Amino acid sequence: TTNRTFTMIKPDAYADGHSGSIIQMIEAAGFKVKAARLLKLSAEQAGDFYSVHKERPFYQDLCNYMSSGPIFAMILEKDNAVADFRKLIGATDPAKADEGTIRKKFAKSIEANAVHGSDSDENAALEGKFFFSETEIV
Ligand code: CMP
């Protein structure tokens, strides 16, 4: 069934001018952009967004990195959106990402890995709400 996922183009990919290419890959894979917003997170907002990772050793670095520059936040819609989007972006670690995936093409490291993708329908809904109100989903 048609459902939604949430993504962010991360600061390194935005800064390097890859937003257009990444959105092109997303649309070519059959996803519809339902909401989009360019913004810069504060370190606190990044900390809130990634609070599930609070106890992980990379948490502080991640918050600094995710608040280091603009990000492109989007809600995407497609059949089987969460799983299909994770396939399209590839493994978290770009060294393990398959050919043809967004991370294989654009990720620089396990942290600066170009894009975020929700890992479940439940998190997709929560993450979408973090950035967008119902009236901003078109
Ligand atoms: P993301 O899919 O957005 O979810 C958590 C993020 O933490 C991940 O992408 C990376 O940007 C970052 N990260 C940094 N180090 C690690 C690590 N060792 N394992 C997983 N994620 C990491």
TrEMBL record:
The keyword Cell membrane does not apply. GO terms for cellular component: cytoplasm. CDD domains: NDPk_I (cd04413). Its cofactor is Mg(2+). Residues 2-138 form the Nucleoside diphosphate kinase-like domain. The keyword Metal-binding applies. Keywords: ATP-binding, Cytoplasm, Kinase, Magnesium, Metal-binding, Nucleotide metabolism, Nucleotide-binding, Phosphoprotein, Transferase. One of its GO terms (molecular function) is ATP binding. It catalyses: a ribonucleoside 5'-diphosphate + ATP = a ribonucleoside 5'-triphosphate + ADP; a 2'-deoxyribonucleoside 5'-diphosphate + ATP = a 2'-deoxyribonucleoside 5'-triphosphate + ADP. ATP binds at residues 10, 58, 86, 92, 103, 113. Its EC number is 2.7.4.6. The active site is at 116 (pros-phosphohistidine intermediate). GO terms for biological process: CTP biosynthetic process; GTP biosynthetic process; UTP biosynthetic process. It comes from the Bacteria. Pfam families: NDK. It is found in: Cytoplasm. Major role in the synthesis of nucleoside triphosphates other than ATP. The ATP gamma phosphate is transferred to the NDP beta phosphate via a ping-pong mechanism, using a phosphorylated active-site intermediate. Belongs to the NDK family. Homotetramer. PANTHER family: NUCLEOSIDE DIPHOSPHATE KINASE, NUCLEOSIDE DIPHOSPHATE KINASE DDB_G0292928-RELATED. HAMAP family: NDP_kinase. This is Nucleoside diphosphate kinase. The gene is ndk.
